Write the structure tokens for this entry.
Amino acid sequence: MRNEATAAAPLVELAGVTKRYGTGTEVETEVLHGIDLVLRRGEFTALIGPSGSGKSTLLNLIGLLEPPSGGSYRLLGRETAKLSEAELTRLRGRTIGFVFQFHHLLPAFTATENVLMPGLVALGPATPERRDAARGLLAAVGLGDRLDYPPRKLSGGQQQRVAIARALALSPELVLADEPTGNLDTHSADDIFALMRAFNRERGTAFLVVTHDPRLAARCDRVVELVDGRIAADRPNDAARPR
Amino acid sequence: MPFEWLVAVRFLREGRFQSLLIIGGAAIGVAVVIFITALVNGLQANTIRRVLGTQAHIVVRPTEEVARPQREAEPGGLVMPRVEARAQRLRSIDQWQPLVAELDAMPALTGVSPMVSGPGFAIRGDATKAIAVFGVDPPRYDRIVSLSERLVQGAFRVQASEAVIGKELAQDLGLAIGDRFRLVTAEGGTTVAETFTVTGIVDLGVRDLNRRSVYIAFRTAQAMLALPGGASQIDLKVAALFDAERIAQGLEARTGLTVESWMRTNEQLLAALRAQTITTSTIRVFVSAIVVLGIASVLVVSVVQKRREIGILRAMGASRARIQRVFLLQGAIVAVIGSAVGMALALAMTVVFLDVARNADGTPLFELHVSPWLFVGTALGAIVCGLLAAYAPAQRAAALDPAQAIRI
């Protein structure tokens, strides 16, 4: 699927990216002012900053859910502005996994079916191998005994584990997590974080995690701080790097 | 299961109560459409059968005699010729034998029966009744109006001096099988009187016809009505009832004779039937519209309720088109289930109706026409309605901005 040139390119390359809402109206506001950011493969990055600093917007842009208003965004070396809606949708499905704050599982489907869903969208009806893989992922997040539970019968922490398993279902290059532990108690939050970290180490999946918790940010490879739509700090966190 | 099917079915199952409501709505709609259509078709078939049971579908007659003015009206208006309409005497169709042979060969016709008919009197003792004499060939005439099936007594046999008469006429003259009466005609200026023996008594279903119908042999009638070797009309029966007018017009253009179909002689009946058909069509259209609106309104609510799920699916890489298909499918699934339930309901209604609506004598009022095509057509119509109903909601679902849908 990818050629040599894109394989060598960084995962995410943002150059001078801006985002405005309400263009042409009286309430036009610029949320992001010229973001330059490069995410490398396998990097585990924390995105911190006060509320309203534009973290979620930045995540949506990187996740191809919204187009930038200005600047350039290259994902795996491909300029996203040149892609059609259908191509963006396909690229998003295959390269990016999402974990949201409020779990956002599909309530009408069991845990296993939720994990199978990205494959169902991208590859068609589930095969026995994909079912096995989904069950394996759920076992890996510690839910081997909850495979056929509907989301409403799972605790918040368990739902978030399913969401992580789902985000990883198609082995994406990048997982975007918007305050994945924001809704959980400290104990569950630590578990979830450890889980993501483990997948990052084992599979080399890059993570970009929005968090308010400095304790968790301290355990990431790199911390990017966003203030008022600008990158205020971007520092490596050598202490957290795997030895 | 493919993605769209799985999600559509699950969404419907998840909103169970809503789904049941719209399936119920669709089912009632389908049931009403099928039942009303079957009812009206049955009613119309019954009416037509009754009316046409004693009529030929097409009647061929000689052209009317017209008096032509010997002088045209002049432009100045000084001469205004008064043209007296001619009295129409009984005449034969020219060259009717080859015409009958030709008509016999037409596959669109199932019965061809030449006839000599004219007015006369039936006399027994002191009683005299004005009657219509029909000279027919029984096997041929049976194919036009089945007298054999309408016999109350006796047989449909009309040899030299035998006659089959209507039920009321038999009463009026006190005639039974084997009794004799005199038949008097005055066609062609001379009075002819003959004695006939009653061989059959028929009930034509219409009192007036029963009171004045006398069937005798074709040749006897030719003699009595002063039309030796002639035929005053040819009765035809067609295979497809509503082709009658078209066939009649074709014959008229080809032969130059007066050819009238039942559709022209029963214009009022036809107009009534048409009005009935329009009424049912209107009911069908409105019922469908209500079903469409019902399904649409529930699906619109469902799209709003499922915004977040739609957002998640879009984030996972489901395209707008696929989300649209998920909702279109929901409309189609609801329609299919609804029409299955509706058909069962319609069948039940039909059975109950046939049981309740009976004639005084306990026989069914009429046969309901429930053809399988009615079911197939209604089911297809329901699916089209379902898709139509789902179109706008599906558009809205597809147009949702995933980033916004997730944030809620």
